[in-house]
Amino acid sequence: MMFTNRLTPTNLPSFLHLTFQKLSNKKLLSSSIFIQKLPEEQPHQANTLSFATLHSHSNLEQTKQNHALLIKTFETHFNYSQFSPLAQYNFLISSYIKNNQPGTAVNVYAYMRKNGTEVDNFTLPTILRACSQVLMSQLGAEIHGFAVKNGLDMDVFVSNALIQMYGECGSVESSRLVFDKMADRDIFSWSTMIRSCHKGRLFDEALELIRKMQFLEMRPSEVAMINMVNLFADIANIEMGKAIHACVMRNGKNEKLGVALATSLIDMYAKCGNLASAKRLFDGLDQRSVVSWTAMIAGYIRCRKFKDGTRLFVQMIEENVFPSEITMLSLIIECGFVGGLEMGKWLHAYMFRNGCSFSSALSTALIDMYGKCGEIGSAKALFDSEKRKDVVIYSAMISAYAQAHYIDEAFELFVQMRESQVGPNEMTVVGLLSLCAEAGALDLGKWIHAYIEKRGVGVDVVMKTAVMDMYAKCGDIHGAHRLFSEATS
After folding, report:
1. What is the pTM of this model?
2. How far is CA 314 from the centre of its chain?
3. How far apart are CA 241 and CA 72, in angstroms?
């Protein structure tokens, strides 16, 4: 196959064709469009496989019971289990993670290291997954160092887990370093690296990886194809998405699309504005997951078809498919994105009527939605009702004030935030700087700039740009030029 400098809908089908004979008799993954296959789901050493099989039947309560038994076993120095201590610890870590307890899994790992318990190439990918879930990049980097020191970094499963951990924690550069140093890469290495670049919005690098896969005649897995479709959705490249869709249909031997890939395609068509194709795919699904419904409803909202979105939401409830928190979060974010105030209010009322618990993430999304739609009163009422206010909620309310040009209220809230011992993040500071820029408030902008330097708030390209923009828009061209010179020197 000839290597091409540009990946196009014309040469993409030949790249994908090789994989479909392998996939046609295999049911596609039933994961959501937001989840990809994780390294620990791959085969591992024989001494841990039997324990992993046992784990698949363990809920959280059973996991806690096994944990207590393990502690009691070690305290009495008598081994009641046919499994080694390492296998038992691996079981606990994996089980806690699958029961949404990554913090507890991290504590088990810390106990292992403290007591000098052996760690193997099953332990590390599993605990790195926990680091990905709770964004503990510092611990992930420490585990990376441990792996290098003990020669475990050459294991493909460990390397794949490191790529994913760094990608989820926002360090695409570190992901790429691990990827580039791998002597042997499998399809999960490529798929995870593509996802990391996509998540970091390095779209050109992601496309380059797909080109290299094409050149090397790598057979893309279902997850790799889903990652590609999601990439094409976010860069609004409907032609590339159609190319994958066409290949699947031509080579699928008349089999129905799997839910995961179909949902990704629905999302791609909707984001590219082709609601007819998205709805046709949605209607053709034999089984619709809550993620499929979410993608279709979000597509209607994105295209400002609010009545169709409301109608489909009601239909979803009537078919006994109930929205998850991620569903509500996704739909509210879309309402804010397109200024769909009435739809946002309707969703807010639905949650209130049905006694849905308002997590910090949901409250923040609602405040942000109301702020973007100019409903400052509703945003403030929600903000005031929150008993525990973190930096994200404060930042959302400050951003709402900034968008409405309420400069006094924004700075009063910032002072209140500091008095509450809540430190600002990038979003908080950028919001205030943008407000100063629009209002021409140079003195306040300088005060924020001094605060950044004094308090050591993390400064990246976005914040540097916001500071320069503030100086320029407030008429201090010399200040803007000085900062530009410092940034480029």
Report:
1. 0.72
2. 27
3. 55
Where would I find the H helices in 80-221? 85-98, 102-114, 123-134, 137-149, 156-168, 172-181, 187-199, 203-215
- Exposed, middle or buried: residue 370 (CB in 10 Å: 0-12, 13-18, 19+)? buried
- State which amino acid sits at residue 344: G
465 alpha-carbon distance from chain centroid: 25
Which amino acid is it at 214? Q
Contact 268, 232 (CB under 8 A): yes
Is residue 444 within 8 Å of 407, Cβ to Cβ? Answer: yes
Domain boundaries, the chain: 424-489
Residue 250, both tokens: 């031509």
Burial 424-456 (b: 16+ CB within 10 A, else e): bebbbbbbbbbbbbebebbebbbebbeebeeee
Q: Which residue's structure tokens are 């390397």? A: 159
pLDDT at 233 over 90: yes
**Per-residue pLDDT band at 40 (split at 50, 70, 90):** very low
For residue 418, what is the DSSP state? H
Cα distance between residue 233 and residue 203, in whole Å: 11
**C-alpha dist (Å) from residue 277 to 43, 309, 314:** 38, 16, 21
Residue 282 above 70 pLDDT? Answer: yes
CA–CA separation, 196 and 374 (whole Å): 34
Contact 269, 277 (CB under 8 A): yes
Q: What is the per-residue pLDDT across 190-225, written as a single tens digit (0 to 9) for each?
A: 999 999 999 998 999 999 999 898 888 888 888 888
Model confidence at 58, pLDDT cuts 50, 70, 90, reads: low
The residue type at 198:
H
Phi-psi region of 30 (alpha: psi -120 to 50; beta: other; left: phi over 0): alpha
Q: Please tell me the total number of residues recorded for the chain in this structure.
A: 489
- Give how far the C-alpha of residue 278 lies from the chain's centroid of Cα atoms, to the nearest Å: 23
Residue environment code for 12-31, b if the CB has 16+ CB neighbours within 10 A, otherwise e = beebbeebbeebeeeebbeb
Q: What is the mean pLDDT of residues 216-239?
A: 89
Question: What's the Cα-to-Cα distance from 391 to each of 131, 361, 399, 418, rounded to whole Å?
Answer: 21, 12, 12, 10
pLDDT, position 46 = 35
State mean pLDDT over 109-132.
89
Read off the amino acid at residue 452.
I
| CB-based contact 328:351 (threshold 8 Å) | yes
- Give residue 41's pLDDT: 37
Encoding tokens for residue 8?
A: 């196009």
